[in-house]
Fold:
Amino acid sequence: MGKVVIRVDHVGVKFLMSSQKVDNLKEFIIKKLNRQIDYKSFWALKDVTFSVEEGDRVGILGLNGAGKSTLLKVISGVLKATEGSVITKGRLAPLLELGAGFDMQYTGAENIYLYGAVLGYSKDFIKEKFQEIVDFSELGEFINVPVKNYSSGMKTRLGFSIATVVEPQILILDEVFAVGDAKFRKKSEKKVKAMFKQGVTVLFVSHNIEQVKSICNKAILLEKGTIVAQGDVDDVCKIYEKKVK
Amino acid sequence: MKQNIKNFSKYRYLLSELITKDIKLKYRRSYLGILWTLIEPLLTMIVLTMVFSGFRGNSDKTFPIYILTGRLLYSFFSNATKAAMKSIRSNSQMIKKVYVPKYIYPLSTILSKYIIFLISLIVLAGVAIVLKIKPTIYMLQAIVPLLILLVMVIGVGLILATMAVFFRDMEYLWDVILMLIMYCSAIFYRPSMVIDGGFGWLLKLNPLYAVIVNFRNSIINGLPMDLSALLYSVIFSVVSLVLGIWMFYKNQDKFILNI
Structure:
């Protein structure tokens, strides 16, 4: 098979849950002197190992709190793993929390440049693709209105259009199809499917088993931060369905 | 190191985009726009001159520009360090969701404030002309204290940004320290008043005062820089920069768990 594009190697993420929240200097010094700070640790992910080959479409399944979002955050680089390592090759496009980088005072057009910069695009690239983004988002004349006046659907449409204008090698999807109206949903599905055809590698998180089956060829099942099953999508989905029942 | 430089060049455009955003949004929806950067220090200068020269009962012609230089430098120091301190927390939504090198936030905040500060120096040139300050060759050396000030603010800003993530009360504490720095910077009084009272060491200890002294020497007095003040301010800014970078890098992966 193809070369490995994502390698997750014995990754663990530990969160500290201090029993009392110490967030000011006075309490910190007093408690430190009295040795009263005690942290309970909690492993959101523990010893997670898997690798994804080029062109694979991997579904990540699990109940709430299984560590799915934490895993995506570690892979996209937002969160650093406490132990283990993650190696990714190629341009990564995280379609999580679309439009999280928007500035509310800025207009849609200004936000295209800002959000594009946040995703690490160059200025020339955004300039070149500007019209394409505006067209795809179907915002029309609203593109020059401050984003604070946008509806949530409009924000998502703009965010999706900016994030998908690149041709990424790795696409991370977190229930993005659940947004926008039916028409835009179809359009965005079409766009994502077109990327699949070009051999993009996909990580897909969803609770919708049918969707996972239709998109993915492999799957990983997480439970309480550890992998309980991985392999062919149908096999893993069967295990997951059993667990849900 | 090589990795860091490569990463920085990838996000260079984001840095300039964030700086423009700060400046643009600051003056959007105000009629006078960027002119406020000039009017505000001018008005404070007039008020402070009226209050303190009446109080001192003398008519020193250069007193307004003396106040203006101190006030401009101090208010940049105070605004930029305060904004840098809050930058990580106010961008927490972004930091939690998209990967971006985190130093971009304090750095862009400080640089945008620095640009506004440099624009506000126009007012200084205007006042100098009105007060008939003689142009000297020493004015060119003013660039040195201005650069030292920038390095100092970046260093102090990184230290504060790191600390403020873990301790929220830093913001109140820093307000108090800033007030202390203001009174120890000889902004609206002559240093001789303090030195005669035996508190000259307070001024000597204050790195911001060292910068202000050299800036005033260059602009108003037409004198070469005070070497001990120069040395002290350079050492202070380099040490705080190194310390700031070290603290920031050591703790930045823990930011996301605390914001």
The mean pLDDT of chain B is 90.
